[in-house]
Request: fold
Amino acid sequence: MVNELNKRILFIIGNLRVSNGVTSVIMNHYDKLIKAGYKVDFCAMYNWGSIYIKTVLDNGGKFYILPQEDVKDEVETSGIRIEEDRSGKPDKKRAYEFVKKIIENGNYGIVHIHIIGYYALIASQIAKKCNVPIRIFHSHNPIHIHNLHSLLFTLFYNVQCVHNCNRYLACSNLAGKSMFRHRKFNVIRNTIDTNSIYYSEQKRNELRKELSIRENDFVYGTVCRQTYQKNPYFLIDVFEQIALRKENAKFVWAGTGELETEIKQYAESKKLGFRIQFIGNRDDMAGVYSMMDCFILPSHYEGLGIVFIEAQACGVPIYASDVVPKDVMLTHLMHYVSLKKPASEWAEIIATDHINYGNRSAYKTTIIDKKYDKANNNDLVEYYESLV
Reply:
């Protein structure tokens, strides 16, 4: 068993934005930790707000936010916006002393780092200097080098953070081997809540009606941030080619991101505005997946991709890029297509798929049986309890 010291944990995170896949994973494991008697505090990079902050506070935890450039006073819980927004960014000059004060006064047995980069580095440095016994670096994505900045980022920040930590976790074998190389790491499965993510014929019909989608329309869709990682321009190109092959093809995109304006403009330039609907962040994800007939996401890289598990739980056939970890292939609904293939070949493969995938409601059971449902997964609790 873990002693009382080690039951005090500090999570270092980017944010607790509801629409963030990593947030969903963290909070699913957090619920299990609280039930097992752990005390978990959070230190976030951004004051973006989240309904989950109230959950942390209600459970007796503290929620710290790094000093923000646009805010003079450092905040613990007062002044935090519960609703989502994206204001402010961390103040590097004040961040080190702020984190140092938290760790020095927190008597933490575990500092668990869920981010990469500069703030992960300083958190790992401080935790090591303060002799925190367990310092965990958790890889949620593989290393992806696409320019000089990302190369320097990896060589300096990530390598040093790995050196400062003494335990290593990853969401998949790919994410672990990429980040930690020869070091031993444990895979902690990303879980979903199948009580809220499941196929529903009623929800399918309701949302299709809300979006004015006809009964005979074939709906392709995705759930992702509009950011470089998700390869959004190529996704539009793929659907453009599908639309040329299928007159009844429609596309629904759930999510927002820093490229949102540009992606909408790109879709308009392709004259696809009337066939693509951007529906932003939604609370009714069971309805979103249920109303789709096919899910597409040609990511440049993924640590695992929680949306692939969610889509499978809802019985949606999936086409993903071949860089997505094979760990996520929990059912025969998953298909992989090479990123080396042009959009036209992706479209040909996807548009000609006439396989009958059977009862969509049945796939939820497979997700549960393979312990990717939060109700029957205790990976993180069991890992913590193995540390002493």
In short: DSSP finds 14 helices and 13 strands in the chain. The longest strand covers residues 8-13. The radius of gyration is 21 Å.
